[in-house]
Amino acid sequence: MELTWHGHSTWAVTVDDTDLLIDPFFGNPKTDTDPEELDPDYVLLTHGHADHIGDVGAFQDATVVGTPEVVGYCADTYGTDDTIGFNLGGTVELGDAFVTMHRADHTNGIETDYEYSGGMPAGYIISDTKPTQVSDEESTTFYHAGDTGLMTEMREVIGPYLEPDAAALPAGDHFTMGPMQAAIAADWLDVDYVFPMHYDTMPVIEIDTDDFVREVKATGSDAEAVVLEGDETFEL
User: What's the first-to-final CA gap in the chain, in angstroms?
Assistant: First the structure.
């Protein structure tokens, strides 16, 4: 599984022959990638805020995936014809990937001239095998937490039952978790690798990533904090 961080919460994930793109927002200072350079099979949206769906219209050949409310909004606003709406707790098979939607603790109002709810914010657990109650040591699993605060579901459900090997966690504070709570989340999830995201896009969420690395170490977990450069790829 290949993971590429394009800044903010935008990740490209390749599972065998399937290319996924999560929360396309290329108007951030960490990326030099033009959306036209990418050709994902599926675009996954965690919620409807502009810094997570801003470039969804650039991917008309992809299938847009998210809650029914968000994909419906994108169909109406961006003309995305091919969509898959599913909901919290559900798992869908997208090419070679199995994607499970889980809740995120955040808001999801879509800023338009009219009040529009995007439903519940979400995160995604992406695996090359279908999740079951039987632990599979051969599977590879990545958790994109979306915009969220610290929540006990990470410790009680996502970590022990969905078993992510790596997690991308928001760490910019103010709108989401900051470094301290993100580090606790990494410990609760029992991941091998943790990546900070959703930081340095605007002044209010600028952080020193060394603080994130120190906080992860302070939990005593075995997680390795990996701070990627924009557009950098990690092989999981």
Answer: 5
pLDDT at residue 165 greater than cutoff 60: yes
- Using one digit for the tens of pLDDT, what is the confidence trace for 77-104? 999 989 999 999 999 999 999 999 999 9
Question: What pLDDT digit, counting tens, does each position of 211-230 carry?
Answer: 999 999 999 999 999 999 99
- Determine the structural domain holding residue 81 and report its residue range: 2-235
- How far apart CA 98 and CA 130 sit, in angstroms, is 6
Query: Starting from the edge strand earliest in sequence, which strands make up the sheet with 83-85, in order?
Result: 83-85, 63-66, 42-44, 18-22, 11-15, 2-5, 232-235
Give me the number of domains the chain comprises.
1
Residues forming a β-bridge with 115: 111
Contact yes or no for 53/66 (Cβ under 8 A): no
CA–CA separation, 25 vs 86, rounded Å? 22
Strand residues in the chain grouped as ranges (E): 2-5, 11-15, 18-22, 42-44, 63-66, 83-85, 91-94, 97-103, 109-111, 115-117, 122-127, 141-144, 166-170, 193-197, 224-225, 232-235
Q: What is the per-residue pLDDT for 35?
A: 97
